[in-house]
Design brief:
Elements lengths: L2 H9 L6 H12 L5 H14 L3 H12 L17 E5 L7 H11 L4 E5 L9 H5 L11 H11 L1 E5 L6 H13 L5 H14 L4 E8 L8 H17 L4 E7 L10 H13 L5 H17 L6 H13 L2 H12 L10 H4 L5 E5 L5 E6 L1 H13 L13 E3 L7 E2 L6 E5 L2 H12 L2 E4 L9 E5 L1
Parallel strand pairs: 1-4, 2-3, 4-5
Antiparallel strand pairs: 5-12, 6-10, 7-9, 7-11, 8-10
Helix pairs in contact: 1-3, 2-4, 3-8, 4-9, 5-12, 5-14, 9-10, 12-13, 16-17
The structure holds uracil.
Length: 438
């Protein structure tokens, strides 16, 4: 079967058979399918979409491209559970969520991705921690999950390697926003990780891949349906991406915000609301808590008694990072040489934020990739991000830019001003937790 004929069939809106999909995905391992062909295929799927049956087949083919974890022999004594986000700007939730769930008795083998399009990636954020190994072998990863309760790692050659290749191609070719491709990408990683349960954070808003609630609903339904076919109970929470989540965006800056959150030094209220909504759902889905009140109580306890922070520190040390990282982050996290305030073009209440635009500006500062395999500048990004409803003027900036050079900073400042709409009337903050789908 000629690969180009399979691509042509999808390009013309046809439904691909199991054999055709398997030919494409298996061809990634033996290089009989080129990156150019996969790139054309993803664009065809972007425009022509896939049926439910095709999505299931694609997901299975991507799972079968690697191995699948089995936790039975580890005798963990608790449920194996994870959360995955469809991606946004400033979304560092995974970094605090994994140790919080571990401290509550769950086990979290978190296979994360790199930045995708304008959105940041958990794997990149963890790489801001010097010597932290995001690609341990599977045995090491299993040991860390057993000893610590969680391991945040990246995609390895062993689990869903087909996704690693397709993900990289989509990142460079504007083919991210596809229900079929997002479903198969996320679930191939999560099902390969051998989870008992999954909670999906489906981002909705202009900084998300699904801009409207209808699109987010469609994606949630596709993910829940495909997960169920693979016997992995899954709930989805639709959360807002109409603002940067929390106050910082950029790899090292988000790690810093995570430490502030876990230590209680500074816990941004919007970030906290999203973290609590997702972690609560994880405790309920795995029966680690009987009801919402019990879940919230357990989560608040592990934040306050320091167990969540201890777990984060232990995970970092076990995966090769500095043993004193959480005590002395300033010794290890990269800091940008230029820090500059950005003021809005006028004064007033923020009425709209172009979050995708802000994500792309972070990419152009060097915090995300513009070419495959590009090395990231861990230090750059923004802090003190203002949100919808906040009043800004010549004294109160919309954000502080962290840049490598003065020149970079000056260019970004002008573009960033265009990302904020202002009104002279007070504005209502957007609803953060939009919907729960079970
Ligand atoms: N996260 C993933 O892992 N894959 C996608 O396609 C989008 C978000």
């Amino acid at each position: 079967m000629l690969v180009k004929e399979i691509i042509r069939k999808k390009r013309d809106g046809g439904e691909l058979s199991e054999q055709e999909i398997n030919t494409l995905i298996e061809g990634l391992s033996d290089n009989s399918v080129s990156r150019e062909q996969i790139s054309a295929f993803t664009m065809a799927v972007y425009f022509k979409s896939m049926t439910t049956a095709e999505i299931s087949t694609l997901t299975r083919a991507m799972i079968n491209s690697g191995s699948r974890l089995d936790w039975q022999q580890q005798d963990l004594g608790g449920p194996v559970v994870d959360k995955h986000s469809t991606g946004g700007v400033g979304d560092k939730v995974s970094l605090m969520l994994a140790p919080m769930i571990a401290a509550c008795g769950g086990y979290v083998p978190m296979i994360s991705g790199r930045g995708l399009g304008h959105s940041g990636g958990t794997m990149d954020k963890m790489e801001a921690i010097p010597c932290y190994n995001v690609t341990p072998d599977l045995n090491r990863m299993k040991q860390v999950v057993k000893n610590v309760g969680c391991a945040i790692i990246g995609q390895t050659a062993e689990l869903a390697p087909a996704d690693r290749i397709i993900y990289g191609v989509r990142d460079m070719t504007a083919t991210v926003e596809s229900v079929a491709l997002i479903t198969a990408s996320i679930l191939s990683k999560k099902i390969s990780a051998g989870l008992d349960a999954l909670v999906m954070d489906i981002k909705v808003g202009n900084g998300a891949f699904m801009a409207t609630e209808e699109e987010a609903d469609e994606l949630a339904t596709s993910i829940i349906r495909t997960a169920r076919e693979n016997h992995m109970p899954t709930h989805a929470v639709l959360t807002s991406m109409d603002e940067v989540l929390g106050r910082n965006a950029g790899n090292a800056l988000e790690v810093k915000e995570t430490l502030d959150y876990l230590s209680g030094r500074e816990r941004d209220s919007h970030l906290h609301e999203v973290v609590m909504a997702l972690t609560t759902e994880m405790l309920l889905l795995t029966k680690l808590a009987g009801d919402r009140a019990e879940a919230m109580d357990k989560l608040q306890t592990v934040l306050e008694n320091g167990r969540a922070m201890e777990t984060f520190a232990k995970m970092i040390a076990e995966l090769g990072g500095p043993k004193d990282f959480v005590e002395k982050p300033e010794k290890y996290l990269a800091v940008a040489p230029v820090i500059k305030p950005v003021y809005a073009k006028g004064k007033g209440y923020i009425s709209a934020i172009d979050v995708r635009g802000i994500g792309n500006l972070i990419v152009s500062l060097g915090g995300g990739r513009d070419a495959p395999g590009q090395e990231l500048d861990m230090a750059v990004g923004l802090t003190d991000a203002a949100r919808i409803g906040e009043y800004v003027d010549g004294e109160k900036p919309v954000a502080m830019i962290h840049a490598r050079t003065q020149n970079n900073a000056d260019q970004i400042v002008a573009e960033m001003q265009n990302c904020y709409g202002l009104s002279d009337k007070p504005q209502k903050a957007p609803k953060l937790i939009r919907k729960l789908i079970t």
